[in-house]
UniProtKB/TrEMBL annotation, chain A:
Pfam families in UniProt: GCV_H
Coiled coil: none
Name the record gives this protein: Glycine cleavage system H protein
Similarity annotation: Belongs to the GcvH family.
Gene this protein is translated from: gcvH
Organism: Luteimonas yindakuii
Gene Ontology process terms (BP): glycine decarboxylation via glycine cleavage system; protein lipoylation
Xref: Gene3D superfamilies: 2.40.50.100
Subunit structure: The glycine cleavage system is composed of four proteins: P, T, L and H.
UniProt keyword Membrane, yes or no: no
């Protein structure tokens, strides 16, 4: 299994969130999640300007076999989407925590960040699942 | 309880991602489903399909029994080793299972049936066999390895006893023969498959399965999982039991009318319903569709057509075509412009003939 970057926060449903310091949160799915999904062939991105709610579906990633919702870890407005994924969804398979980011949200309530899992908790969750 | 094939440890040693498939612990992929798909289309891949069931039927009246049991006619099988594909129907014409039947000799036919339908099939066959004094013997001790792809036959030939090589090389499509492996194992080798590629399905005693698997690996045949098997068979236009058909549909409603033999004087189970459906012209239709927009078509999505509403049966992303393809079932009539409801959005799709892919190539009209 790949290293879990220490600067990320996680949802139990395998999304990661990186707090960028300017009130933005970048969102993707974990390396573990991409491994479970297998070869990704399509990403249904949100639109810039969409309002997303913490814990609800904001994007959809599709592997050959299945479609999975990507939940937003926080509530706010989508301020950027990774449009490169439209042509290269496999970027998520190759670099889930980096180039494979999916969208960025301008956060409304930074208190919500406290409810997310830190990397150790997420790693423990994965260990328990094995 | 989950069943395991004799190759279970081999799959795990190769790093397979295992999944529950109809009660069987089977490999979904060994890393990348898409790479395994391309491997089969371009060279040769192998699948452990030992979860499928071999059933031997023996008795003086076995041919008479199969004329009653199957919608296709075993009367077409004149030469030993030849096989046909057929549906086995219930009295309402619904598909109990689809299977391959091999003519072994006058008192012996061999069926290969789906994994998930084993118990149901055996009960159904057994119930109807009694009246014909036919013995129904499940051959649970046999393993099956499917070797598929343009290089598949050549690779298998290299592992067969030199004395049997020529006769196996000359085996026609949809026929089987008994040969010996270079290791001395008895192999029942059929030139059949489920990927649209040429190849063999090799049936042998479980005891020899690991050695054959390893020999194939050494010969350069790469393992492929159920994931690749599913995308390959859909590209090849082959229907899947449980996804595209079950007891609620007749062969006509799964585009398998070509397997139904309405030959004179043969009273097979379900025939009456099929004849009525033919004369009424009310059978639903299975169509092949391609989506030019990005995205993936999925089982259960709602389909809108001029003929009425239907649904996506098998749907997937086609690695060979780089687009989503699917089977859909819609009511009888002219389909017109077909749309699929994808998460609330009506996306247009094109109706195309299938197979979508043959001999590794997109078929005319499929890519636009």
């Amino acid at each position: 299994m790949s290293e879990i970057p220490g600067d990320l926060k996680f949802l139990k449903s395998h999304e990661w969130a990186r707090v960028e310091g300017d009130g933005r949160v970048t969102v993707g799915i974990s390396d573990h999640a991409q491994g479970l999904l297998g070869d990704l062939v399509y990403v249904d991105l949100p639109s810039v300007g969409d309002r997303v709610e913490a814990g609800t579906g904001a994007a959809v990633v599709e592997s050959v076999k299945a479609a999975s919702d990507v939940y937003s870890p926080v509530t706010g407005t989508v301020v950027a989407v990774n449009s490169d994924l439209a042509d290269k969804p496999e970027t998520i398979n190759e670099d889930a925590f980096g180039e494979g980011w999916i969208f960025a949200v301008e956060i409304e309530d930074s208190e919500q960040l406290n409810e997310l899992l830190d990397p150790d908790d997420y790693a423990a969750l994965l260990d328990d699942a094995d | 309880m989950t069943s395991k094939t004799i190759l279970n440890d081999s799959h795990r040693a190769l790093g397979a991602r295992m999944v529950d498939f109809g009660g069987w612990d089977m490999p979904l992929n060994y890393g990348s489903q898409i790479e395994e798909h391309h491997q089969v289309r371009r060279d040769a891949g192998m699948f452990d399909v030992s979860h499928m069931t071999v059933v031997d039927l023996r008795g003086e009246r076995v041919r008479e029994f199969l004329r009653r049991l199957l919608a296709n006619s075993v009367d077409k099988l004149k030469k030993k080793g030849k096989a046909i594909y057929s549906c086995m129907l219930d009295e309402q014409g619904g598909v109990v299972d689809d299977l391959i039947v091999y003519y072994m000799d006058d008192g012996w036919y061999r069926l290969v049936v789906n994994a998930g339908t084993r118990d149901k099939d055996l009960a159904w066959i057994g119930r109807h066999a009694a009246a014909f004094d036919v013995d129904v013997v499940e051959r649970a001790e046999l393993a099956i390895i499917a070797v598929q792809g343009p290089a598949a036959r050549e690779r298998v030939l290299g592992l067969v006893d030199a004395a049997d090589r020529d006769v196996l090389a000359g085996l026609g499509r949809f026929a089987a023969i008994n040969v010996r492996s270079a290791h001395g194992a008895d192999l029942f080798v059929a030139r059949t498959g489920y990927t649209g590629e040429d190849g063999f399905e090799v049936v042998l005693e479980q005891g020899g399965a690991v050695a054959l698997w390893d020999a194939l690996l050494a010969a350069g045949v790469k393992p492929a999982g159920l994931g690749a098997r599913d995308t390959l068979r859909l590209e090849a236009g082959l229907a899947l039991y449980g996804q595209d058909m079950d007891e609620s549909v007749t062969p006509y409603e799964v585009a398998l009318g070509w397997t139904v033999s309405l030959d004179e004087g043969r009273d097979f189970i379900g025939r009456e319903r099929l004849e009525r459906q033919q004369s009424d012209g009310d059978a639903r239709q299975l169509i092949g569709v391609v989506m030019d927009e990005k995205g993936v078509l999925r089982h259960g999505q709602r389909v809108l057509s001029d003929a009425g509403e239907g649904e996506i049966l098998s749907g997937t992303f086609s690695p060979t075509l780089g687009k989503a393809i699917a089977f859909a079932r819609i009511p009888a009539g002219d389909a017109g412009q077909v749309r699929v409801d994808i998460r609330g959005r009506e996306v247009p799709v094109r109706t195309v003939k299938f197979p979508f892919v043959r001999d590794g190539q997109a078929q005319p009209g499929v890519l636009d």
